[in-house]
Amino acid sequence: MSTPTALTVRQRAAILFVAFSGLVGAGFQLGLMPLASLSISRDLLGEAYAPGLAGDWFARFTAAIMLGGAIGGIFLGSLGDRIGRARTTGISILILSLAGAAGAFVTTQEQLLVLRFLAGVGVGGMWPNGVALVSECWTSATRPMVAGIIGTGMNIGILCVSQLGRMRTVTADSWRWLVELGAVFAVIGLAAVTILPESPRWLATRGSRTTKTEVPLRELLRPPLLRITIIGILLGSIPLIGAWAASKWMIPWADVIGGTERAGYKATTQGWWAVGAIIGSFFGSHVASLIGRRLAYFLISLGSVTLTCGIFLFSRPLDPLFLPLVLAQGFVTTLFFGWLPLSLPELFPTRVRATGTGLAYNTGRFASAAGVLGAGFLMAWSGGDYAKVGVITGLVYAFGMIVIWWAPDTTNKSLDD
Q1: d(C-alpha 312, C-alpha 394), whole Å
Q2: Which among 368, 395, 335 is positioned nearest to 66, based on CA atoms?
Q3: What pLDDT band is residue 23 in, cutting at 50, 70 and 90?
Q4: Average of per-residue pLDDT across 162-180
Q5: Do 236 and 363 meet the contact criterion of CB atoms below 8 Å apart?
């Protein structure tokens, strides 16, 4: 089996940079709608605009990118096991950046909905290929560190969106400029497709009989890997459902309540959350390495359900403690996203690693889409009560405290085991 030492330090650094940048671009796309959705709806709906209808469209946009992510993660993850992680990483970046930027030219909500789905396809493909590529190209001793760096990528992208929103307020008359900026990541995608070196571990599997005769997805969906696949899906789904069905409602909640008194309050809220999220997603892998994969996931689940439900029950936008609690919630709930890039690749053998991590991580986006749509229905049922919806949907984190004890403990496992 080829090892990461077959690559030079410069090549490994280039791989880490491209994967990290691609995930920043994915985070940029994920952060757009929580910040800009209400302003976009005010513009595109015109006289038909109403807060309840705008909240419903926010749920639809979120569900579209989640569904796209689920399909892209599975399809492009499988493609990465077939044609290579580096090339498919580049393809994913090109899709998410170009489809995302095309949203600046829409004239209807329906057009934007389609482009949100397509951008989601690229977002979904970016995670499994980027994570598999970095995991296989860096040594075991450095994996907690590089997993932490990779884990911060999406949240740095979200932070970039929020800071851009603070520098130039996003309104119904001024939102297209922000959407257009997503195109800058296409340069990274083009470089990944053309010049980025490939994973030595993946290259070593190409000549094996198993790689030639087995379809990765088929192998994952039958014994002996079926049980691991199901566990991986559950472990990947819970953080995603919680993030999109519960956590992301804090930003439009802040806009509805605080936006009339403080211009840019929604961007400020997203910024506080993103700062906490960047720190959390970096340290999640270190926590898992320090105290073990299982215990770490259990404690993160416990902290997430407590903080998410607590912030909606006992706080409110514009309260003095609201923004510090948003930062704390962002920190704890995104510890998952440092845990996942370290731990999910350890569940699967090299020949199906991109497909396996893509299936495990992105199948949760189907459930996330359903959860977001369900939250949209809850929003209508509750009469626009963001706090009530946040509490109900935040309970999903409690399931993580149960599921983790069915997972194998991979704390001391090598990727080659």
Answers
A1: 9
A2: 368
A3: very high
A4: 90
A5: yes
| pTM attached to this predicted model | 0.78
| pLDDT tens column, 117-127 | 999 999 999 98
C-alpha to C-alpha distance for 260 and 257, rounded to whole angstroms: 7
| Lookup result for tokens 């089996």 | 1
Residue 188, token pair as written in the block: 């990274």
Euclidean distance between CA atoms 1 and 267, whole angstroms: 48
> 201: which 2 tokens?
């571990």
- Give φ, ψ of 174 to 5 degrees: -145, 85
Q: Which pLDDT tens digit goes with each residue over 371-394?
A: 767 766 777 787 778 888 888 889
- Please spell the DSSP secondary structure of 236-247, one letter per residue: HHHHHHHHHHTG
Which of 265, 306, 301 has the alpha carbon at shortest distance from 284? 301
**Residue 61 contacts residue 120 (beta carbons within 8 Å):** no
What's the pLDDT score for residue 88? 96
Chain centroid offset of residue 407 CA: 22
> In Å, how far from its chain's centre is CA 208?
33
Are 337 and 285 spatial neighbours (Cβ–Cβ below 8 Å)?
A: no
Domains of the chain: 4-406 (1.20.1250.20)
| Six-digit token string for 265 | 């309050």
Highest mean pLDDT among 103-112, 270-279, 364-373, 403-412: 103-112
For the segment 42-55, the average pLDDT, to the nearest whole number, is: 88
pLDDT at 232: 94
Q: Which of 214, 336, 208, 327 is nearest to 274 (CA)?
A: 327
Q: How far apart are CA 317 and CA 342, in angstroms?
A: 35
DSSP of 194-227, one letter per residue?
HTPPPPHHHHHHTTSHHHHH--HHHHHTSTTTHH
Cβ atoms of residues 198 and 84 within 8 Å: yes
Is residue 130's pLDDT more than 70? Answer: yes
The length of the chain is: 417
Top-confidence residue, 386 or 239: 239
Count how many Cα atoms sit within 13 Å of the Cα of residue 323 in the half-sphere of its side chain. Answer: 12
